[in-house]
Amino acid sequence: MKKNWWKALTVVLLLYVAVAGLLMPVPRLAILNETIRNLYFHVPMWFGMTFILVASVVYSVRYLRNPSVELDIRSHEAARTGILMGCVGLATGSIWAKYTWGTWWTNDPKLNGAAIAMLIYGAYLVLRSSFTDEQQRARVSAIYNIFAFATAMPLFYILPRLTDSLHPGAGGNPAFARYDLDNDMRLVFYPAVIGWTLLAFWLAQVASRIALLKQKVYEKQLV
Amino acid sequence: MLLFREIWYLIQKDFRLEWRQRAALNGMLLYVGSTVFVCYLSFALRGGELPVPAWNALFWIILLFTAVNAVAKGFLQESRGRLLYYYTLVRPQAVILAKIIYNALLLLGLALVGFGVYAMVLGNPVQNSLLFVGNVALGALGFATTLTLVSGIAAKATNSSTLMAVLGFPLMIPMLLLLIKVSKNALDGLEMEASRSSLLTLVALNMIVVAVSYLLFPFLWRS
């Protein structure tokens, strides 16, 4: 139980976010209206995705230093969870854009950045599936994971700030300084970020356990 | 110092090989030439006048595809035995740095020839030539740095030529966006001052990519 306190925390936080996020008072802003509540679901996805992808890169680095099947599986499942978070983030963002900007997709640097990130990790999955040798697959995909993260990811956090964006915090401003995120919203937003990030790690952990068990069953069958 | 000597020998070797089997070099030159000509013929239907943004976009797309084709053969061409032979003689860092420098010079040559042919048949609306050529040089360097390691990764997998495009394109999009922006400034004849931050970001990005390639290639080589 001592090791699982963060899972209980995840459940509590996400229940709180679901209830408080939908019921607590929010500022009345033109155009945004009630859709502002999507802030608790859309924005934390990107936080979760960033953290889980960083974790994936950390596992890849550890794999290269000290190869083991477990590290490879953890890195792979973390990347897959990152893709899931990214897809949910794109979907929630798309619905939000439909109600506030009037379209499902616009030519916005953050949208393009998110789409490119999904392409890069899609390429990562394609790369993984084009190897037959397991060790080579693990090693080469770890290398690509690190390379892709180091070359493309910094730009997704730099480029949107250099150009104008429909998102708040664009055009040279840090993301939250201009947010007139009032204190009521902070009370839900910060727990939401922590809760969804923890959920991403939980998902990745469960997925890696399943993959490890499958690997063990497979090895047993070989003997 | 030994590293620089090794790099110098490897670059010399690459150029000598290229010069001895001129088929590949001529092939790439013809590839650029015929792509430009196909573009020219398709736009000639509209009276041959190309709007400036389309001129810019088309030029970079041609360069992108030329780069992928030219760099792809870097590692794919080398036979397995010959690669093993290098690895007994020089250190892996020398191999990757030499390949990057060689690819950058090759792409620079191809890009300049491509620009010449392109400007000849489709007109030359560039107003700030110095900035434009400098930007093309940075672009050649950037494409070479990103694609060299990607070609090394793709060479390990089974369906390398498809993989090369799938892995390389998303990684190059951020760089390409910056290049097209600077290139637009050069076409509009803006001062160097207007593109300085983009140029600096490009240089920094190139340095990151070279550093990451330098660190990761020894792991790729071992498998």
TrEMBL record, chain A:
**What function is annotated for this protein?**
Required for the export of heme to the periplasm for the biogenesis of c-type cytochromes.
GO molecular function terms here? heme binding; heme transmembrane transporter activity
Transmembrane ranges, per UniProt, are 40-61, 82-99, 111-127, 139-159, 188-212
Where in the numbering of this chain does the Cytochrome c assembly protein domain appear? 8-153
Q: Which PANTHER family match?
A: CYTOCHROME B_B6 PROTEIN-RELATED, HEME EXPORTER PROTEIN C
- What would be one Pfam family of this protein? Cytochrom_C_asm
Q: Which GO terms describe its cellular component?
A: plasma membrane
State if Transmembrane is listed as a keyword.
yes
Give the family this protein belongs to, as stated in its UniProt record. Answer: Belongs to the CcmC/CycZ/HelC family.
Q: Which cellular compartments is it found in?
A: Membrane
Q: Superkingdom of this entry's organism?
A: Bacteria
Its placement in the membrane is given as: Multi-pass membrane protein
What is the name attached to this protein's record? Answer: Heme exporter protein C
UniProt keywords (A-Z) are: Cytochrome c-type biogenesis, Membrane, Transmembrane, Transmembrane helix
Name its GO BP terms in alphabetical order: cytochrome complex assembly
Please give the InterPro entries that the UniProt record associates with this protein: Cyt_c_assembly, Cyt_c_biogenesis_CcmC, Cyt_c_biogenesis_CcsA/CcmC
